[in-house]
Amino acid sequence: MAAVAPGPSGSFHYEFETLKGYFAQSEDSTDDSQFDFIREEFGLIGRKYDTDTDAGRDKGQWGRFERFVRDLNEKSGESEAVKVLFLGRHGQGWHNVAESKYGTKNWDCYWSMLDGADGMVWSDAVLTEVGQGQAKDVHGLWQQLLPKGIPPPETYYVSPMTRTIETADLSFKGLALPHGKPYRPYIKEVGLNSP
C-alpha cells in the first residue's frame, strides 16, 4: 500500500508498506534465498478474498485477486492506493561476471571504475547468454500465466541501462497481451535526488 503526502517545493513524498498474506515472498516464513518466483508463479498465495462470489470462481486465483485489489482501492482513503508491483532485476550482465571473476572487494575498489578488461566490456553492460535465458524464463512465465488470468502490467518502467532494456524486451515483447495494454516501456532514470 502506498500513501502520498505533499513534500517540499510541491513534490510528493510516498510511503510504502507491504501487505502480508498475499504473496509468499512477503511472508516472514519464506526463505528468500530459496524462493523461486518462476516455480512459484510469482508467489500468489491461494486463498479466499472478501470479494469472492460464486460467479467469480471461474476467474481463477489471479482474477479474484485483481477484483480484491480493485475493491481495496475503491475503499482506500484519498491519499492511499494499493498497487501490485512486479519488480524485476536485470538478467546476468558482463559486469556481474567481472565482479565474480575479480571478487567484490577488488571489483568495488578498482575494476568497476574501468570500462572493461580481459575481453569483457561492462560499461553499460549487455546481458550474457545466461542473462538472456533468465529474461526468457520470465517471458515464459508470463506466457503461462496470462491465460490463467494474471492481469498484465498497466505500466512498464525501465532504467536507461542497456541490460535493463534488453531484459524487459526479452521478458515482455511478443506476449499475447490484451488489446489496449501493450508493452510500451517508459525509460526512466532515477537517482538519489530525483523527485
In short:
The protein contains 5 helices and 7 strands.
Descriptive terms for the model:
single chain, 195 residues, alpha+beta, two-stranded antiparallel ribbon, 5 helices, His_PPase_superfam
Report what the structure shows.
With 195 residues, the chain is α+β, with helices and mostly antiparallel strands. It has a domain at 1-85. The chain has helices at 60-75, 94-102, 104-109, 129-145, 162-172; strands spanning 2-6, 12-16, 80-81, 116-117, 120-121, 157-158, 186-187. The strands form three sheets. The protein has a three-stranded antiparallel sheet with strand order 2-1-3, with no helix packed on it. A two-stranded antiparallel sheet has the order 4-5. It has a two-stranded parallel ribbon with strand order 6-7. α4 (129-145) runs parallel beside α5 (162-172). The longest helix is centred in the last third of the chain and has 17 residues, at 129-145. 13% of the residues are buried.
Topology:
Layout: E1 2-6, E2 12-16, H1 60-75, E3 80-81, H2 94-102, H3 104-109, E4 116-117, E5 120-121, H4 129-145, E6 157-158, H5 162-172, E7 186-187
Parallel strand pairs: 6-7
Antiparallel strand pairs: 1-2, 1-3, 4-5
Helix content: 25-40%
Radius of gyration: 20 Å
Compute the number of helices: 5
**How is the quaternary structure best described?**
single chain
**How widely separated are the two ends?**
19 Å
Protein name: Phosphoglycerate mutase pmu1
